[in-house]
Every structure is written in structure tokens, then in C-alpha cells.
Amino acid sequence: MIKIAIVEDENEYVHTLRSYLKRYETEHGLNFQVEVFSDGLDILSDYTAGYDIILMDIQMKHLNGMKTAEKIREFDEEVIFIFITSSSQFAVEGYMVDALGYVLKPVPYLSFSQILNKAVRKTIKKQEIQYMNIDVDGGTMRINLDSVYYIESQLHHLLIHTEKGDYITPGPMKRMEEILTPHGFSKCHNAYLVNFKHVTGILNNYVLLFSGHKIPVSRTRKKSFMDGLTDYLGG
């Protein structure tokens, strides 16, 4: 299942894009889940990082497509933008939000299917990677699990340390442990959940990460953590 959002204020083009997506589904044996928004403000309201591809009109009445994409990028680094525009002058601006490309109105199916094909290939490749969504101040973030170094419990919140920075999210460590243990994470301490992928060793009761972080290991957790690390490394 590939989730696609159409952000377009002209019904004519909404109809065209929907029909093109159905045609593409039939031709390629895929299944799309499509949701339509009539303006940038609509998709930004309670935005969750759940879409794989966003087909974004540039020129809209209340909030244009470029400003909308900039706002979305603050919470979602992974979604693929394809701009639908009446002028190629916006193409350069699209690179500011790492857009895959654009299609000029009136939208021909051949051009649309070619760029959609690139987006679909990228999406299928990304779906092989494990992600999780977390609640943060102002919205929801999608995080690549491989990028997470470790998670630290701080009272009623969790501090998630990643390659791209740190994020604070509410919730108990126990729930996070349940979610991430099957993906190569383990507690070395009641307050720390570590990604085995980033562990370079254990020395003087500290877990050492490739990033340079040093995380304390508790006596009660040391054996189970070591056993888990040995299994992860293949014996």
C-alpha cells in the first residue's frame, strides 16, 4: 500500500490526478490509498507523517504549495513531493524542499506516469526500511530506526538521540522497549534503550557507540544486554 495525498484547489485537476492514479494502479498492479486536500492549510491541520507521496499544486488561494512543503519538511523528511504547476519558474524553488520534480499543467499522462514511476520506486525501496512515528511539540515526526543511537528516559518523556538530532516525545520507556526490541534495541540500564547497530563495544561499565556517546550499563542489565549484543552480532 502506497499512501498518496493530492493537494489541489481545482476540481478539474483533482479529477485528472485521481484518474491517472487509477490508471497507473491498473497498469502496474499496485494499490494506492489516496486522500485529497483543497489547500495547504488543510493538509497541515493535524499533519501526521503518514504519506509516501504528496502531489502538490503550487498556486493555491490560502497557502501556496511551496510554503506548505516547507512546513511539512519540518516534520517529515521522508515524504516525496511532486509539484503540479502551471509555470516552470517554480522548478528551482522545489529543490529547496528536496522535491522529486514537477509536472506542468495541463498534466499529460505520460509525463505524470514517468515521474510517478520514480516516486513509486523510491517509496518501495524506503518501505524496506523500518520507521516509527513519534509525537513531538507541534506535530508528528517520522524517524528511520537505523538512525536512532539510543533513547533516554526523562521523567514522563523520552529523549531520542539520532543521527540528525535529538527529539523529545511523551510516553513510557516500557512501551518504546516493546516496540523496538524486535528491531535490535535493548536496555543497558533502566533509563537507556540502545540500538545495537551503533554499538562499538563495552568498556568499564559503559556502552560505547560509534557516534562517541558513552552510556552507563547497570549491573542488573549487563548480562542480558551482553547476551543480546552477542546474538545481534551473530554469536
Which terms summarize this structure?
OB fold (Dihydrolipoamide Acetyltransferase, E2P); alpha/beta; Rossmann fold; single chain; 5-stranded parallel sheet; 235 residues
What is the secondary structure topology, with strand pairs?
Layout (H helix, E strand, L loop, with lengths): L1 E6 L3 H18 L3 E6 L2 H5 L8 E5 L7 H9 L6 E6 L5 H4 L6 E4 L4 H18 L4 E6 L2 E6 L3 E7 L2 E6 L2 E6 L2 H8 L4 E5 L2 E4 L3 E5 L2 E4 L4 E3 L2 H14 L3
Parallel strand pairs: 1-2, 1-3, 3-4, 4-5
Antiparallel strand pairs: 6-7, 8-9, 8-12, 9-10, 11-12, 13-14, 14-15
What does this entry look like structurally?
It is built from 7 helices and 15 strands. The chain has 2 domains: 2-126, 3-Layer(aba) Sandwich (Rossmann fold); 146-232, OB fold (Dihydrolipoamide Acetyltransferase, E2P) (Beta Barrel), CATH 2.40.50.1020. By secondary structure, the protein is an alpha/beta fold. It is 32% helix and 34% strand. It is elongated, with a radius of gyration of 21 Å.
Briefly, what CATH class of the largest domain? Alpha Beta
Radius of gyration: 21 Å
Q: Report the biggest beta sheet as strand number plus sense, adding barrel if it closes.
A: 5 strands, parallel
- The CATH H-level superfamily of the largest domain is Response regulator
Q: Residue share in helices?
A: 25-40%
* Fold-level CATH name of the largest domain: Rossmann fold
Shape: elongated
Structural class: alpha/beta
